[in-house]
From TrEMBL:
GO terms for molecular function: nucleic acid binding. Residues 129-321 form the Integrase catalytic domain. Residues 380-425 are annotated as: Disordered. InterPro entries: Homeodomain-like_sf, InsJ-like_HTH, Integrase_cat-core, ISNCY_transpos, RNaseH-like_sf, RNaseH_sf. PROSITE patterns: INTEGRASE. SUPFAM superfamilies: Homeodomain-like, Ribonuclease H-like. Residues 414-425 have a biased composition (Polar residues). GO terms for biological process: DNA integration. This is Transposase. Gene3D superfamilies: Ribonuclease H-like superfamily/Ribonuclease H.
């Protein structure tokens, strides 16, 4: 019996002996007088055991069967290991037709020793920044290197963009490492799907912010613009305000997105047996759509803040930019190769020794940029033919300065040869 039940037995004994009144019994036990008389009658009829709860020792009617618990633990070990309780409950309902609450799934895993208790650190004091009221007012962009394919494939880096107002993943792609091409790919995809946002939030990576991008005091006083990276020049052409975060907490929305993806996306890729980067990029749109349906929220203002796309193709905007000098043959060099603009009827030739802007796309396509227009360029024959190599001359063995040791001239004279030489002399 429990302490509360023993207390009831002692109080009822004193009441039966006449040492307590019915009002005192009700007050001590915290029950009504009518309930006190019920307990007194039950105690007189069945003794102290009648005071104990009637369901003690019985199996609840709504308890889960042991076979179901064993199946859930077996499924977690074989197919869904590593997933959290919430995601595991969703996967059981989606793939196994097993509908259990999150608390039941967590309790089953803890009883089987499959989910260790997570040690939660004391949260740091970071004042949360409220969401933007309109979609398209702020995008957050970042990349996350992780073992997305576990031991089935190589280490990949997921590049992604999330809208601050809705939490919607605008675009994402896998690349081997964090590269400019990966950021350009997700940026072009997001711009084509949604439009041009007002601002973009990123970290201080050299892709966004070159090491020498901050102007000096003399440059600020002279009014010179700061140097921009290839990505920064494209944002400036699109009129997107670039905000650089000083800490990971500043762009916490996309940092929490990586935690969610590292917890859920890895399991989804494992269930689809994805082993290569190409396969991962092929199933990624489906997984992103599933994530947005579950986690995206409605903005405060339904009217989006996106702007229309410019007339200039995005491939020309997100391109590497260099300046070259046109030769007399209408050619210029780029990384050891010679290029020539395609001749267009009615377009005058470029002046010799004039400086022109050259733009190179992420796919290697080269354009000559002039007056807001891109002129395609082709590689000339001069750079396609390999340079002639000098024929090697046959090595002529050098004549020795003195005869070999076994040469007749180097043999010592015999006694007869010496006698002959003296006699002739």
């Amino acid at each position: 019996m429990t302490k509360s039940e023993l207390k009831r037995v002692m109080v009822l004994e004193k009441w039966i002996d006449g040492r307590l009144a019915e009002q005192d019994v009700a007050r001590i036990l915290g029950i009504s007088i009518r309930q006190a008389y019920r307990l007194k009658a039950k105690y007189r009829h069945g003794g102290a055991q009648a005071i104990a709860h009637g369901n003690r020792g019985r199996k609840p009617a709504h308890t889960l069967a042991d076979s179901l618990k064993q199946r859930v633990m077996l499924l977690y070990q074989e197919r869904y290991f590593g997933s959290n309780a919430t995601h595991f409950a969703e996967l059981l309902a989606e793939h196994e037709n097993i509908h259990l609450s999150v608390s039941s799934v967590r309790r089953i895993l803890l009883e089987g020793g499959l989910r260790p208790a997570r040690l939660r650190r004391r949260p740091k004091a970071h004042r949360p920044r409220p969401r933007k009221p309109q979609a398209g007012m702020l995008w957050q962009i970042d990349a996350s290197p992780y073992a997305w394919l576990e031991d089935r494939g190589p280490m990949l880096t997921l590049h992604g963009i999330i809208d601050d107002a809705t939490g919607e993943v605008v675009a994402a792609t896998f690349r081997p490492t964090e590269t400019l091409e990966g950021y350009v790919t997700v940026m072009i995809e997001g711009l084509r799907r949604k439009g041009v946002p007002l601002a973009l939030y990123s970290d201080q990576h050299s892709i966004f912010h070159p090491p020498k991008g901050k102007p000096t005091l003399e440059q600020e006083l002279a009014g010179e613009p700061p140097s921009l990276s290839t990505f920064g020049q494209a944002l400036a052409d699109l009129g997107i305000t670039h905000i650089k975060a000083l800490s990971p907490q500043a762009k916490g929305r996309i940092e929490r997105l990586w935690q969610t993806f590292q917890d859920r996306l890895v399991i989804e890729l494992r269930l689809r047996n994805v082993c290569t980067m190409e396969e991962a990029n092929r199933v990624l749109p489906e997984l992103i759509a599933k994530h947005n349906r579950q986690f995206a929220v409605a903005p405060q203002n339904a009217e989006p803040a996106y702007r229309p796309l410019p007339e200039t193709p995005l491939e020309h905007i997100f391109a590497r930019r260099q300046y070259r000098r046109i030769s007399g043959g209408q050619t210029f060099s780029w990384k050891g190769k010679c290029y020539m603009p395609k001749p267009v009827p009615g377009v005058p030739r470029w002046e010799a020794k004039s400086v022109v802007e050259v733009r190179v796309g992420m796919d290697g396509q080269v354009w000559l940029w002039d007056q807001g227009r891109a002129w395609p360029c082709v590689e000339t024959q001069a750079s396609q033919t390999p340079a002639p190599t000098m024929a090697k001359k046959e090595a002529v063995p050098a004549s020795p300065r003195k005869p070999a040791a076994n040469h007749p001239w180097r043999k010592p004279f015999s006694s007869k040869q010496l006698q002959r030489s003296t006699a002739s002399g």
